[in-house]
Each structure stands twice: as structure tokens, then as C-alpha cells.
Design brief:
The complex is a heterodimer. Chain A has eight helices and 19 strands. By secondary structure, chain A is of the alpha+beta class. Classes of the chains: A alpha+beta, B alpha+beta. The interface between A and B is medium-sized, with 19 and 13 residues.
Chain lengths: 342, 125
């Protein structure tokens, strides 16, 4: 189906995925102005029944997650490092997890090793319908608000829908059985969605200031460094009873040595992952973890870790691109405002 | 009409009446790169050697080097594509040329491919 739509395919996390159909910028704009459809079936869906046991592995408030609601959380290792970032939705009888493609098998083994039963449904399909016109193309889900989750019938297809995404726009992530995926995608394209690939997904999420696992976060980074302190629930900060809590608490109290920041880059040359970051004195203070040309801003943007004393908004930095310093400035995140249907 | 030559690195070369070589990337190359957002060109006066990386093209997603198809000295570069990189997507083989150079050996161009040979080369990729 991707090839029929003219996709250029690339390998990602062991999957052959569409990078782009007509062009990254056109698909990016379609998502910001209309509605774009992404196939994200490579992500891993799984079910967990024992919420209390699962909560011990994440810093989020899972017991306080109401039925029909979804939340972003993190799987942490004993050192407080991030094993994965994931979405958890409460469907009453079970929690549904959506795991990163490249991490789902690691996550499964980790969760099981801690005695928590988890049922993978990795064969299930997942599509993301994103953009201001998404709700007009999925009226079946119009009653949901941002981060609501529900089982819905879409033209006879049994779907699991959440009002969320990875673009900063309003929209939905829709799970269904693999054999229904083509019919569901076909229906949404018929309703006017623009097929979009991984390229646009990356530029959209970067503008929205959202981390990409493997680039911006990983086992070597804790939530405090990664600017994800908001994902540690208030109740969990009194109990400190989740895996990795002690090192996370220590990092929170001592303050991180490095912090993930957004950087607006001057000129037009994007600074890519790996580019060295220097302060005004020319000292190396960090490195870029994600960088691209932001189509909505017509300028390059980046995420990177910098020394904590260089992390304040407005700090002038140099990014080294092809041995030349390019001026940048620490910018508030997101780069492009979110438009969620709260 | 002057003949256009092609390299395996997907550059085209056209020799003008003044003997200068005009160099750009092929339509196939721009298509493969996707939306081009930044171009860095060699400055006039720079001596470049065949196969050396002498220009950079950035798409939204990735950076790519442009390799010198021949040896010589840069005489001019195309500021229009620096100011509007997307021109490379719409006019790669015409107005969106990259730079002009004086070839060290004017006959070196004969080592490059004809249009027919390049098309055959693309078919083999």
C-alpha cells in the first residue's frame, strides 16, 4: 500500500518504513494545516492487567489514571536511566502500553523480569491521524478530549483510539487488527488525509519539542537531565517507590550536570545529531542529539544536552557544523506551539 | 547546442563558449535528496580536485556532499540557490547550477558520461 502511494522506503528499527511520499515539507505542512496519516505499526502494543505491579516500574501515577484516560510515562532502570518512553491507557480491564519499535522487546523482557505479567500484541497495526482537520476525518472519535482513550467502531472496524500523537497537533492514534489496517488507512485517505512518512514525523515532533528515544533519551540519561521531570507524578515524589527512584531523586535534589535544551540555529544550515556545542568562551559544553530544518519556522532547530550553566533560555551557543561555528540560542520548548484538544 | 556531460556522482557539466565548465547536480540527485533547504558552494578562486567534496546540499532530513566532477579553479558560484535552495528541486539541470570552473585540463570532460550513458547508468542502479 505504501509503494502504491509512491513512498520511498527506508529501514527503521528492523522495519521497512515509508520515509516520504510526495516530499517531507509538503507532508509536514499537510499535518500542520490539514490532516496527515502515518503508519506507525512498528510501535509495540501490549496489555498489562496488574496496574499496581506495573506502577512500581514507572515514575507516573498509574493507579490514579482513570478508565478512558491515557498518560505518558517512562520505564527506568535501577540507575534511573530511561529504558523507554511510552503511552499508557487505562481500559478498565487492562492497561494498554504503546512502546517504541526499537525497544519493545527490551521492554517486554524488563517488565517480565520484574515479575509483571505483560501480553504483547505486536502484530496489531497502529496509524496516527494528525492535524487540525483530523477530528473532521474521524467524527466517530469527536467526543474524546486530549489524552482520552476508547474502543470505537470505525466503519465496522474495531479500533482502539486515543486522542494523542507525536506532532504537537490535535489528532488520534488508532490501533486495529493487522488484517483491518489497509481498510482503515484506505478509509482515512478517502476522507482526505494526506499520507505522511517518517521524515515529516521527525520534523513535526522536533518542532513540538518531543524527544525521540535513541536520539534524545536513552539508558544513559535520567528524566531530570532529559527535561522530563514533569513525568514524575507528585505522589511518586513523596513515596519514591519506583524502580530507579533513588538516583532520580538525587539528580533532582543535586540538579543535573547536563540538561536537554531546545536551540534555535541562525542561518539555514541545520546542525545534526552529534554536532558539538560550545559556549561563548569556545569551550565544549555539549552535543546536539536531534537537529533538522524546521519547515514551519523556515529555520534550523535542534535538541541537545548542554552543561547546566548553559541551559538557561537565551544563552548564546555555537554549534559546530563542518568545522565552522554557527550561532544558536537556547529557546523555550516547544518550538511550535501545541494545538491539543484539551 | 553544447553537450552536457554527467558523472557517476550525479553531477552535470556543461562547457560554455568561454571554455568555462558549469556544474550542477542532476534531476535524479535532487529527486533522491528530497526538499532541499540549504546549499553551501565553493568560493571563487578555490582550486578543487576531481572527486573532492566541494559543496554541501542539505535536505530536511540529511546532509550530502557534492563531489567535484573535474579538476580546476572555481570562477563563480550561484548565489540564487544559496538564497533559495528549493530552486534546486525545481530547476536542477538549468538555472539551479552550482558553480563555474576553469578546467585544468579541458579534455578531462571526455572521461565523463553522455546523457545516454548516464541514463543507462541510472537504469543499472
Amino acid at each position: 500500500m505504501h509503494r502504491r502511494l509512491g513512498a520511498r522506503m527506508v529501514e527503521f528499527a528492523g522495519y521497512e518504513m515509508p520515509l516520504q511520499y510526495t516530499g517531507i515539507i509538503a507532508e509536514h505542512q499537510a499535518c500542520r494545516e490539514g490532516a496527515a496519516l502515518f503508519d506507525v505499526s512498528h510501535m509495540g502494543q501490549a496489555h498489562v492487567v496488574d496496574a499496581r505491579a506495573f506502577e512500581a516500574l514507572v515514575p507516573g501515577d498509574i493507579l490514579g489514571l482513570q478508565p478512558g484516560r491515557q498518560r505518558y510515562t517512562l520505564l527506568l532502570n535501577e540507575a534511573g536511566g530511561i529504558i523507554d518512553d511510552l503511552m499508557v491507557a487505562n481500559f478498565g480491564t487492562h492497561l494498554q502500553l504503546v512502546l517504541n519499535a526499537g525497544r519493545k522487546h527490551v521492554d517486554l523482557a524488563h517488565i517480565q523480569a520484574h515479575g509483571v505479567a505483560i501480553t504483547p500484541h505486536f502484530e496489531r497495526a497502529l496509524v496516527a491521524l494528525q492535524g487540525p482537520k483530523a477530528v473532521a476525518m474521524l467524527p466517530e472519535a469527536a467526543a474524546l478530549r486530549f489524552m482520552d482513550a476508547a474502543k470505537l467502531d470505525v466503519a465496522g472496524i474495531a479500533c482502539v483510539v486515543t486522542r494523542s500523537g507525536y506532532t504537537g497537533e490535535d489528532g488520534f492514534e488508532i490501533g486495529c487488527a493487522a488484517e483491518d489496517a489497509q481498510a482503515l488507512a484506505g478509509l482515512l485517505l478517502e476522507r482526505g488525509a494526506t499520507p505522511a512518512g517518517l521524515g515529516a514525523r521527525d520534523s513535526l515532533r522536533l518542532e513540538a519539542g518531543l524527544c525521540l528515544y535513541g536520539n534524545d533519551i536513552g539508558e544513559g540519561r535520567n528524566p531530570v537531565e532529559a527535561n522530563l521531570t514533569w513525568a514524575i507524578a507528585k505522589r511518586r515524589k513523596t513515596g519514591w517507590d519506583f524502580l530507579g527512584a533513588a538516583p532520580v531523586r538525587a539528580a533532582l535534589e543535586a540538579g543535573p550536570a547536563e540538561k536537554l535544551v531546545g536551540i534555535k540555529v541562525s542561518g539555514r544550515a541545520p546542525a545534526r545529531a552529534g554536532a558539538e556545542i560550545r559556549n561563548a568562551q569556545g569551550e565544549r559544553v555539549g552535543a546536539v542529539t536531534s537537529g533538522c530544518f524546521a519547515p514551519s519556522l523556515n529555520a534550523p532547530i535542534a535538541l541537545g544536552y548542554v552543561r547546566a550553566d548553559c541551559a538557561a533560555e537565551g544563552t548564546a551557543l555555537d554549534l559546530i557544523v563542518r568545522d565552522k561555528p554557527i550561532p544558536g540560542v537556547v529557546a523555550p520548548l516547544p518550538f511550535v506551539p501545541h494545538h491539543y484538544a484539551r | 547546442m553544447t553537450q552536457i556531460f554527467y558523472s557517476k556522482d550525479h553531477e552535470w557539466v556543461q562547457i560554455g563558449e568561454d571554455g568555462l565548465a558549469t556544474i550542477g547536480i542532476t534531476d535524479h540527485a535532487q529527486e533522491a535528496l528530497g526538499d532541499i533547504v540549504f546549499v553551501e558552494l565553493p568560493e571563487p578562486g578555490r582550486n578543487i580536485v576531481a572527486h573532492e567534496a566541494c559543496a554541501v546540499v542539505e535536505s530536511v532530513k540529511a546532509a550530502s556532499d557534492v563531489y567535484a566532477p573535474l579538476t580546476g579553479t572555481v570562477t563563480e558560484n550561484n548565489q540564487a540557490i544559496v538564497e533559495e535552495p528549493a530552486l534546486v528541486n525545481t530547476a536542477a539541470e538549468t538555472t539551479a547550477w552550482f558553480f563555474r570552473m576553469r578546467l585544468e585540463d579541458p579534455t578531462s570532460v571526455n572521461a565523463l558520461m553522455s546523457k545516454a550513458a548516464y541514463d543507462e547508468f541510472l537504469g543499472s542502479l
